[in-house]
Amino acid sequence: AMQAHPQVAGVQQQGCAALVNVCSGADGAGRARKQRAADAGAIEAVVAAMQAHPQVEDVQKMGCWALRNVCSGTDAAARARRRRALTARVPEAATAALQAHPDDAAVQRQGQRLRDLLV
Please, which pLDDT band fits residue 93 given cuts at 50, 70 and 90? Predict the structure, then answer.
């Protein structure tokens, strides 16, 4: 849906929200869901959504949160997802979100958590 409707902010926000939920959990099933999402292009899709809708706070907030969930973990696969996120310019997307929405506490919280994960 995110790839089919890149200019519809509501679809992008809901797609990111779905990824937040699907990519939660640190157990084996959660790790597998994170990897399947990354393999399906979730990292790049979320960055594209954030770039397409820089002024939509909910897209920025949910995008940062989704990326943090997809990239979290301590195993080798999680480290590989974080490397992929760097290649996909996730830190730049998080920084842009923080700069575009300095007064939105949720964007600031999720954006900073994402940046902290990637350092």
Answer: very high
CA distances from 69 to 8, 16, 62, 63 (A): 23, 10, 10, 10
| pLDDT on residue 80 | 98
Residue 119 scores a pLDDT above 90: no
Is 15 exposed, middle or buried, given 0-12, 13-18 or 19+ CB atoms closer than 10 A?
Answer: buried
Q: Which of 114, 70, 77 has the alpha carbon at shortest distance from 92?
A: 114
Q: Cβ of 45: how many Cβ atoms within 10 Å?
A: 22
70-82 residue pLDDT tens: 999 999 999 999 9
> How buried is 54 (Cβ within 10 angstroms: 0-12 exposed, 13-18 middle, 19+ buried)?
middle
Q: What's residue 24's pLDDT?
A: 96
Best CA proximity match to 30, nearest among 84, 85, 95, 75: 75
